[in-house]
Structures are given as structure tokens and as C-alpha cells.
Design a protein that fits this description.
The structure is a single chain. The chain is α+β, with helices and mostly antiparallel strands. Among the domains are: about 150 residues, no CATH class; about 130 residues, Alpha-Beta Plaits (2-Layer Sandwich), CATH 3.30.70; about 140 residues, no CATH class. The chain contains 27 helices and ten strands. It has a four-stranded antiparallel β-sheet, sandwiched between helices. A four-stranded antiparallel β-sheet has the order 8-9-7-10, sandwiched between helices. α1 crosses α12, α9 runs antiparallel to α10 and α9 crosses α24. It is elongated. The two termini are about 20 Å apart.
């Protein structure tokens, strides 16, 4: 079949596949769900799902903080009227299950067979202001929960429907903000926090940043391609190939029902940057042969033959780097690794089908300065090569010193995360969350499952007393600022039966009195805050609370102390407990982060080692490939330790990705060296010629990779920022190692055995 006809058929087939992919891409949706970051398949996750089915999710709520006007107290009638109006407005909104507010909080009093709920606050009766405020400060559970200790702000907490999705959640938040504006409450006077708020903001920013970073990457890569090739086709063709691969990758992701989240949002940018490598190697070799005077057909065949092995091998190693992320128990990381790895392989396919087809159908390019002897990069690369070899001892010694310092610094890296890890300190959303940390109980939920021993009820006096001891420990030692449990119910019922007197807010002293209280508990079953603490048959209870977001390192230490306390002070024959909840699951990811990272990195290194051994049948060659690519990884780990960057979900992916990408240039170099050695009798001359031939592509691809990843440093997400910065640094250090350590290692290891490296690989001679 004629070459042009084959090219037309290839373009037609690829266009059809792209059209189908575009159809699926159009159905792709953005999503960010904190629940996706729980450790999949973990027994604690299974337990929490069952627990939340019984008691409800611990993070399906929104906190609305309202500040009183400057110089005023929250107890002033005018302010309380606004609070009450907002409370009623929110309660009437769809998807709102329950609202807890200072103006609807009541002091229940039992008289006869009825319950009278007496409000703590009376906005319409200014004369009762002093009396009301005194009662509020004496009542447990109001100050630091609904009313700030300095009486300058209040909180309205509204419970939402379970796992509310973004569209109805956004509508609810928009309605609340509109009502706040209508009542004359400015942006600086209110604060919103909660899972739904963070998810809404994250998704909106994901959409915006994806567009911005893709635009920046396209502009940057376009400029670099232009300065490299100085031809329109040298710019347009790589862009077409990579954009096609991105569409295919996103289409496949959509067809599999996966949405774009904080991790998979990196796929288009990652692929756009990484996918340029193959096309640049092909076009660089193609244009070089054209510059030497070869025909278009011969130039293309030489470029495909010489680039095919290296590009195929580099695509394999890069995709393996992403596929190793599938060892993670965190679903977004798993999806990101899977689909990006597949997309890298799709890019290779398009680079060797779509790109050659377009080059065949285009006229023979007219280069600006055709050359028959060398090209403009030869002089610069030649001087670099001579300098590196002349000062090889300095290069090796300096590398060793930097490596030792990096390893020492890397030992300072700590695994730590918080609920809003990916937001910077000055982010408005994080500042709103910090408002509740400073003035109220905090935003970090706490959950402890309470299971009475067989034959006991959650309302047994001994069970309640042990629960009370746990409450005291959690408030005094653990750091909970708000706590509620079955003890809260019994104490509240006792207080209600004794005229609502605060001194009666305590557990009964006898089983007889407790039995009387338990019989009256049914009077309070309509109160949502009580209903969520004990199952109807009293077979299981819940201890819930809130505290500041202290970070996973501190939380792990507190949880270890708590477990020790429970072992020593809780009798399993009376009560058993289990720590659970969303915050506990997020913290538990940290236990898996190190293992997942080491596993992924080990798999990556082992796979690359096996591939090199299989293809080159040389242990020396594995060292030649691994050393220049592990050195940059260790240096960046040292930078992380020196800068105090913690290991967390987002940064844990950096090393496996960087290694998979960085090894590409080494493989291209080695594959070209083997081809050159089939013609060159001298190892030194072969290395020098390969250095000149591959050096340009190595530098250009590295600049594009570093430049593309550097656009991510403008992200408002800390995780994305560090992915861009640290992978960019790794690749920058990688190209330096490639142009310095690699030729030194080759000449050192194969100085007396050039025949070993000269042995052709079957794929290279086909």
C-alpha cells in the first residue's frame, strides 16, 4: 500500500477514535468528595460506613459563624433577631435536616406528662438580657459551641442530607449567602465552614485551574518548541499529537465513570508535559537528517527507527511509574495512576502513527539553514562533554557530597496532614475554618463508638459512669471542646425533671432513679441531637465531639494515649469502645502513605531494573541507568527535609512520578548509544557522538517538562504547588545528572568491556 494512502487511512481511523473520545469527554464532570480519600478496603472504613448508617455521617454539617457589629455583644436584641431570622430561613431550606442555633436552643422542663422547651435567649424581651446571658454561661454545651466565650460571635450549625452532592449543596450555600446580604450582613461579618463548603470551593477551583494551567502549559511549550525547531510544523504537530492523547485519556476516564477530582485534574497537564518527549525526539532526529541533506522519506524512517526503541521503552517505564500509584489505598491516587499510565501509552501510539502520517502528508519542510556538517548545538554540547570528562573527579566528588547531605536532610521529613491540607494558610476558606478553631469548638470531628457488654443497655448506670469518665478525659486531656454522648441525654432528662436547674445536670446516684429517667427518655426522642446519640433499642451509643484541626502527627499521639487510657480505665465486661469517624480515617491514610510510597517506588525501580536486564543483559547497565535517576530523587527528598515540607497524600506521589519520567532521557541516550556503537569502533567516540545527537532532545524535553510542571506552582492548592515544584526540581537535577554523571558512568563501567554494550538488542536491528 502506498505510503500516502496508508497515512490517509491512519488519519481517518484516528479521527474516528478521537470523535468518540470527544463524546465521552463532553460528559466528564468535576467532583471532589472527602470520602474518596478514605483508605479503600480498610476494615476501619467498613466499620465507619456501618456506623454512619446507624448514626449518620459526622461531617454532613455546615457551620455559619456570625460576628456581632463592632463594639456590640451577641446578646443585644437587634443582633439576636437577625440570628433567629437566619435560623428560621435555613431551617426551611431543602436538604437541611436540622438547625442548631443560639436562638432555638432550649432548656427542657418536664411538668406532668409534657415537656416544655424554654428558650435560653429571648430577643423580643430586652429586659431578660442579663438573666439570659448568665444562664448561657452556666449551661454546659452552649459557650464555645454556639456562643463564643468573648460574646462577640455565634454559630448556627445546620445538618444537611447525607453526602449532599455539589449542585444542591451550591444552591443551598448560595441561598444562605443571598439571605445574609439581604439582612445587611457583610462578607467580613460571617464565616462558613464544613465539608460541603470545602468541596464546593475545591471543585470550582479545579475547573478554573485546569483551564488556566493548560493554557499556560500550551503557551510555554509553544514558545519552547518554536525556539527549538523554528518551524510551524515543529510546533503544531507535537501539540496535535499530545492534545489527541489527552482527549483519548479523558474520554477513557469518562467512559469508566470516573470524575475529575483533585488528583485526576493533573492528568491533562501531566500528559501534555510528559507526552511531548516522544514527538520531540522524533522531530529532532527527523529535522537533523533533513539538515544533513537526506530525503523526507529516509529522514522519517531513520527518525522512527532510532527513536522507536527508546520511545517505546521510555513510554513503558513512565507508565509503570504511574501504574505503581495503583498500590495506594486512596481512590483518587489509584485512578490518577491508572488513567495517566494508560494515557502515556496512548501518547506513544499516537506519536508513531499520527505524527508520521502528518509528516508524510506534509510537503518536505524547508529548513532555514540546511547543514551537511553538524548543527548549531554541536559546539555547545561538545564543549560541555569535554568539560565534564576533564573534571570528572570534581563532578563525582561534588555529587557524592550533595548526596550525603541530601540523605541526612531527607531523614527530617515527617508524615503530617490536616483536614484542609491543600489550602494555603492565607486562603479565605482556611481563614474561615480558622475562625471556628479560634472562637468555637473547632472543625475536626471526633467519634467514639460505645458498645455495652452483652446483656447490658447503653443506659446501664455502670456503662454511663464509664462513659462519663471517658468524656472527662477527652475534655481535660485529649482536647475536645464539645462533647455529647448518652450521658448527655440522661443528664439533660434529669435536669428537665428537676425544673431545669443546672445543678441537677448530673448522672443519678441510684439504679432506681436511673430507671425513672430512662422511662422519660422517650419524651426527648424527637430532639435530633439526642436521636443521633443512641439507637432506639439502646444497644449501642455514640460519643461525638469537635476540636481544633491539630494535624495527624499530634492526633496520632493523642489517639495512642486515648487507647492506653481506655485499656486501663474501661472494663470490657461493662463497655467496649472503638475510635472511628472521618478524621480518624483521614489520619489513617498517613499510616499507609510511607508503605504505599516505598512499595510504589520499589516496584518502579525493580521493573526498570528487570527491563534493562532483559534488554541489555548487563548488570552494569542497570547501575548506569539507575544512578543518574536516583540521585535527583534523593536530592529533592533532601530539599523537602530542609524546607520542612511534610509527606502527605499529594506529595507522596512525587517520587514515583519523577523517577518514571526522569529515566526516559537515560533510556533514549542508551538506545542511541547502542545504535552508534554498531558503527563506531571507539567507545569514547560513540559516547561523544551520542552526547551530541541526544543532548539537544534531552535538554529540550527537560526544559519543556520543567517549564510545564513549573506552571503548577501558581496553584491555590498546596498539594498541586508542591507537585509542580518538586517534580520540576527533580527533572532539573535529572538533566544535570544526565549530562554529567551518565557519560562518566558509561566510560567508567565499560572502559575495558565495550563489546558488552555493543551487543545489539533484537528490537534495534529489526
Amino acid at each position: 500500500m502506498p505510503l500516502r494512502k496508508l497515512s490517509y487511512l491512519t488519519l481517518l481511523l484516528l479521527t474516528l477514535v478521537t470523535a468518540v473520545s470527544i463524546y465521552f469527554v463532553a460528559q466528564l464532570r468535576f467532583n471532589y468528595n472527602f470520602n474518596d480519600f478514605y483508605p479503600a478496603g480498610d476494615p476501619d472504613l467498613d466499620y465507619y460506613e456501618q456506623y454512619s448508617a446507624r448514626f449518620g455521617n459526622d461531617n454532613d454539617y455546615v457551620l455559619l459563624g456570625l460576628e456581632a457589629p463592632p463594639g456590640h455583644s451577641v446578646f443585644e436584641p437587634q443582633f439576636l433577631v437577625k440570628v433567629d431570622s437566619l435560623t428560621r430561613f435555613i431551617q426551611q431550606r431543602r436538604h437541611v435536616v436540622h438547625v442548631t442555633s443560639p436562638t432555638n436552643a432550649t432548656n427542657p422542663v418536664v411538668e406532668g406528662f409534657g415537656v416544655f422547651n424554654i428558650p435560653y435567649l429571648h430577643p423580643q424581651e430586652p429586659a431578660r438580657r442579663a438573666q439570659d446571658s448568665t444562664l448561657v454561661y452556666r449551661t454546659p454545651g452552649l459557650v464555645d459551641n454556639l456562643i463564643a466565650r468573648d460574646a462577640r460571635s455565634v454559630t448556627i450549625l445546620f445538618q444537611t442530607a447525607p453526602n449532599l452532592s455539589k449542585p444542591p449543596g451550591d444552591s443551598l450555600l448560595a441561598a444562605v449567602r443571598t439571605e445574609l446580604t439581604r439582612q445587611g450582613i457583610t462578607d467580613s461579618q460571617y464565616h462558613l465552614a464544613g465539608k460541603m463548603v470545602a468541596q464546593s470551593v475545591f471543585v470550582d477551583r479545579l475547573q478554573w485551574e485546569l483551564v488556566v494551567f493548560m493554557s499556560l502549559s500550551v503557551m510555554l511549550v509553544t514558545v519552547l518548541l518554536w525556539f527549538t525547531f523554528r518551524t510551524w510544523w515543529g510546533v503544531v504537530l507535537p501539540l496535535v499529537v499530545v492534545m489527541g492523547a489527552i482527549i483519548w485519556g479523558l474520554g477513557l476516564m469518562s467512559a469508566c465513570g470516573v470524575s475529575i477530582d483533585l488528583m485526576t485534574a493533573l492528568l491533562p497537564i501531566m500528559l501534555f508535559v510528559v507526552g511531548m518527549s516522544d514527538t520531540i525526539h522524533i522531530i529532532t532526529r527527523y529535522s537533523t537528517e533533513l539538515g544533513y541533506g537526506a530525503s523526507k522519506k529516509d529522514s522519517l524512517l531513520i527518525a522512527l527507527k532510532e527513536s522507536g526503541f527508546g520511545s517505546g521503552l521510555s513510554a513503558l517505564t513512565t507508565s509503570i511509574g504511574f501504574f505503581t500509584l495503583m498500590t495506594s489505598t486512596i481512590r483518587p491516587i489509584y485512578n490518577f495512576g491508572l488513567f495517566t499510565g494508560i494515557a502515556v501509552l496512548l501518547t506513544f501510539v499516537l506519536s508513531f502513527t499520527l505524527l508520521p502520517a502528518m509528516l508524510v502528508l506534509l510537503r518536505k519542510p524547508q529548513l532555514r539553514v540546511p547543514r551537511r556538517e553538524g548543527h548549531s548545538w554541536d559546539g555547545v554540547l561538545g564543549r560541555m562533554f569535554r568539560t565534564v570528562l576533564a573534571r570528572r573527579q570534581l563532578v563525582v566528588g561534588l555529587s557524592a557530597l550533595i548526596l550525603i547531605g541530601s540523605v541526612a536532610s531527607a531523614s527530617r521529613i515527617r508524615i503530617n496532614s490536616s483536614l484542609l491540607d491543600d489550602l494555603s494558610k492565607n486562603d479565605p476558606v482556611k481563614l474561615d475554618f480558622a475562625f471556628f478553631e479560634k472562637n468555637f469548638a473547632g472543625v475536626r470531628p471526633f467519634e467514639l463508638a460505645l458498645q455495652p457488654a452483652a446483656g447490658r443497655s447503653i443506659y446501664d448506670l455502670q456503662v454511663l459512669r464509664e462513659t462519663e469518665e471517658i468524656e472527662k478525659y477527652l475534655q481535660k486531656t485529649y482536647g475536645l471542646n464539645f462533647v455529647a454522648s448518652p450521658v448527655t441525654i440522661i443528664k439533660s432528662v434529669r435536669k428537665a425533671l428537676n425544673g431545669g436547674l443546672l445543678e441537677e445536670y448530673r448522672l443519678p446516684e441510684s439504679e432506681a432513679e436511673l430507671a425513672q429517667l430512662v422511662r422519660r427518655v422517650k419524651l426527648f426522642r424527637k430532639k435530633p441531637e439526642f436521636r443521633a446519640l443512641v439507637l432506639p433499642d439502646a444497644s449501642e451509643g455514640r460519643l461525638t465531639g469537635r476540636m481544633p484541626d491539630i494535624g495527624s502527627i499530634r492526633a496520632d499521639a493523642l489517639n495512642a494515649d486515648l487507647r492506653q487510657f481506655l485499656r486501663q480505665h474501661t472494663d470490657p465486661k461493662i463497655l467496649t469502645t472503638r475510635l472511628t469517624g472521618s478524621a480518624n480515617l483521614i489520619d489513617k491514610n498517613n499510616e499507609n502513605l510511607t508503605l504505599n510510597m516505598i512499595t510504589g517506588m520499589s516496584i518502579d525501580i525493580v521493573m526498570v531494573t528487570l527491563i534493562v536486564l532483559l534488554l541489555f543483559r548487563s548488570l552494569r547497565m542497570t547501575l548506569v541507568v539507575l544512578i543518574p535517576n536516583l540521585v535527583p530523587i534523593l536530592i529533592v527528598a533532601g530539599v523537602m527535609g530542609l524546607a520542612g515540607v511534610s509527606m502527605k497524600v499529594s506529595t507522596s506521589i512525587i517520587f514515583t512520578i519523577a523517577f518514571g519520567i526522569a529515566v526516559d532521557d537515560t533510556i533514549h541516550f542508551i538506545s542511541k548509544l547502542k545504535l552508534t556503537l554498531l558503527q563506531e569502533p571507539s567507545l569514547f567516540k560513540a559516547v561523544r557522538k551520542t552526547y551530541l545527537m541526544a543532548g539537544k532532545a534531552v535538554i529540550v524535553t527537560s526544559l519543556i517538562l520543567v517549564g510545564g510542571f513549573s506552571t503548577l506552582i501558581f496553584s491555590s492548592f498546596d498539594g498541586t504547588f508542591y507537585v509542580g515544584l518538586l517534580i520540576g526540581l527533580t527533572l532539573l537535577f535529572g538533566v544535570v545528572a544526565e549530562l554529567t554523571l551518565l557519560p562518566i558512568l558509561i566510560l567508567y563501567f565499560y572502559k575495558h568491556k565495550p563489546k558488552e554494550i555493543r551487543q545489539p538488542v533484537p528490537m534495534l536491528t529489526e
